[in-house]
Amino acid sequence: MITVIGSINMDLVVQTDDFPKQGETVLGQLYTTVPGGKGANQAVAAARLGGQVQIVASVGNDSFGKELLENLQANAIDISGVRQSSKVASGIANILLSDGDNRIIVVPGANFEMTPAYIDDMEDQIRSSQLVIMQLEIPVPTILHTLELCSKLHIPVLLNPAPAGGYDKEFMRYTSYLTPNETECEQIFGTDMKTALESYPNQLIVTLGSAGARYYDGEKHIIVEGFKTKVVDTTGAGDTFNGAFAYAIVEGFDMKEAVQFANAAASLSVEKFGAQGGMPTRAAVDARLGSDQR
Ligand code: ATP
Ligand code: RIB
User: What is the three-class DSSP state of 236?
Assistant: First the structure.
């Protein structure tokens, strides 16, 4: 069982030819709402591949909350660990899309109702996990508390440190896998990527966009190439990578195989619109792995 402890958002997506400059108004081409949130996305990525997944999270008691929970259920995710806040609205992400690039503002709403006490209430449910996945869209004290709990329960944790502003240097002590992108890696460690990787062998995996991902195995740097593809929307590429990596580790893949599998899954996810729209099945990933598209 994979347990995701993290955010659920409704993504409010606007597509535009040009991002507006400061003080400017432009006309966009499309507005739509799609399910998102880094926690929900990573849960859907792992579940769509065939993983057994539960999510511990919080949504508002509103129409977005209802829709977001229905979406998780439709993806075969156990939502018994989700609370509905009567005080705060569901989290949303304001996403501007232009020419394959995105700019995102997240308003956490009910995601910030997740307290350390709530995690304690969920201890029995968390205990059954083979792996816990977290991101940084819930309060920092809750993340730290959950890391300590998982350490006590001997459950490995995959922490995707995004958005990196919420990173606390205590996290690394309790984290089995940390998966920043290049910018987040620099922001977190304040050093060049090579030095950071060498400080955390087999623990730090840096994603490199279309170039794939890399880690240090204690002796050498392992660069796992990405898969070439036609990009429609990269929103959720990192989430697909994390959900797929978690699934592969739980399936017993070694580190390199798991990174390769995650690259293949994430390359498929960018071919469709929306964070979850292109998340692939296991059969689709296996087909890409066999396709030699690197
Ligand atoms: P995002 O914020 O867009 O979800 P991210 O910034 O967290 O992503 P990236 O390093 O950009 O993380 O991408 C994560 C993974 O997605 C990469 O390691 C790679 O496997 C895959 N990926 C991203 N962009 C592309 C692309 N253009 N073509 C193929 N694979 C891609
Ligand atoms: O990683 C993509 C996600 O970040 C979006 O779905 C959005 O909700 C934000 O949390």
Answer: coil
CA of 105 to the centre of ligand 1 (A): 19
Tens-digit pLDDT profile for residues 140-166: 999 999 999 999 999 999 999 999 998
Answer yes or no: are the C-beta atoms of 82 and 56 closer than 8 Å: yes
d(CA 180, CA 52): 24
Q: What is the pLDDT of residue 100?
A: 74
Under a CB-based contact definition with an 8 Å cutoff, are residues 143 and 171 in contact?
yes
Quick check: is 99 in a domain? no
What pLDDT is stored for residue 292 in this prediction? 65
pLDDT in tens, 87-103: 999 999 999 999 878 89
152 Cα–ligand 1 center, Å: 33
The domain of 264 spans 2-8+38-87+115-291
End-to-end Cα separation, the chain, in angstroms: 31
CA-closest residue to ligand 2 atom 6: 36
Domain membership of residue 20 (yes or no) is no
Q: Return the ∠ at Cα 102 (arms to 200 and 14), rounded to 5°.
A: 145
In a domain, 93, yes or no: no
**Domain with 238 in it: what CATH number?**
3.40.1190.20
pTM of model > 0.85: yes
How large a percentage of the chain has pLDDT more than 90?
Answer: 95
The finding on whether 226 has its CB within 6 A of some atom of ligand 1 is yes
* Structural domain includes residue 60: yes
Cα 285 to Cα 268: distance, rounded to the nearest angstrom: 8
Number of domains in the chain: 1
Contact criterion met (CB below 8 Å) for 212 and 224:
yes
Q: What's the pLDDT score for residue 293? A: 64
